[in-house]
Amino acid sequence: MMLKKMLSLVVLILFPLSVILGQEMSFEEYNPTPTLVVEGAAVPSAKFRFIDVHSHQRDMSASALKRMIVDMDRINEGIMVNLSGGSGKRIQNMVASIQANYPNRFVVFANVDFDGVGDANWSEKAAKQLEEDVKNGAKGLKIYKSLGLRYKDNDGNRLAIDDPRLDPIWAKCAELGIPVLIHAADPKSFWDEMDSKNERWLELKTRPGRKRSATDPAPWQQIIDEQHAMFKKHPNTKFINAHMGWYANNLKKLGTLLDEMPNMSVGIGAIIAELGRQPKAAHAFFVKYQDRILFGKDSWKPEEFPTYFRVLESDDEYFPYYKKYHAFWAMYGLDLPDEVLKKVYYKNALNLIPGLDRSLFPED
Q: Is the pTM of the predicted complex or chain greater than 0.85?
């Protein structure tokens, strides 16, 4: 009996010590420093001047532009494409600020207001407004994921991406010669069961609002299929599928889709972690589809760009990503050839987006 009491006392004493020593911790806290020693170094700026086709800026005032230019020059960014241009007066104000300060370093894309779909002549009015926005300086159209996820028509029904009432908008883009950069749905893992097999478990735990289901608002595949149906219905419109269409984790499937839809290109914003864990397959994919891939980051955080540069340019092994909840694995460099890098960094964007200043890219 005495021995049992003594053992219990020892356990009570040692248990807090085990907590202090880190033997009790959550998955969220576990973030070990690798002991692996490998060659490689950070890549603070891009090898070639690049165009970021996927940025979002609310403030395009003279002072904001001046601050951004400092970081853009530091990381070798030639042109920033601001996808959050809005419409009407907002577009006009942004373009006026750009023209007065840095006329060749920033461009804006317009956005469509999908409220009121179902009203008489809504389609024609929306197309006419887009035409006016382009006349006022917009270089393309950005469609947010709200189309397919949140927008509803006047009858309260989910507005599908391939709704025929939207056809005049896509047709107008072809007529004007401007691209459509579109974000549809989100990673499929957001629709999957939130269990131990879900790679996005940590992201869904820390950001529960991102969890979806077949009825919230529709199955993932249905939304993606709507997007592809719309691309095929409008072969003369040039589409940039944001986030590699959420198929960066299945490059064979993405290649099949690119083959089926020659009017579709893809942007790499927010999916570099998928590419960095499959360097051989991703290298081969970039070489094969080098004319269809565009550089984009999605959020303006200059300190995160070097990871993109290192994945695309280097042959480094096992280096860290910057968001554990996106990827708890390490990155590997794709070691892309210079000609492929040039296309991804700026040539493909120059060919898709009208009116960009080619003189900023002397290698072209």
A: yes
More confident position, 364 or 218? 218
Residue tagged 């950001």 (tokens)? 207
Strands annotated E in the chain: 50-55, 77-82, 106-108, 141-143, 180-182, 239-241, 264-267, 293-294
What one-character-per-residue DSSP string does 135-182 give? Answer: HTT---EEE-THHHHT-B-TTS-B--TT-GGGHHHHHHHHHHT--EEE
Domain assignment present for residue 1? The answer is no
Sheet holding 50-55, edge to edge: 50-55, 77-82, 106-108
Which residue is it, tokens 């094969």?
288
Phi, psi of 62 (to 5 degrees): -60, -40
How high is the pLDDT of residue 25? 84
Domain of 228, CATH number, reads 3.20.20.140
> Which residues form the domain of 281?
49-360
Number of folded domains that form the chain: 1
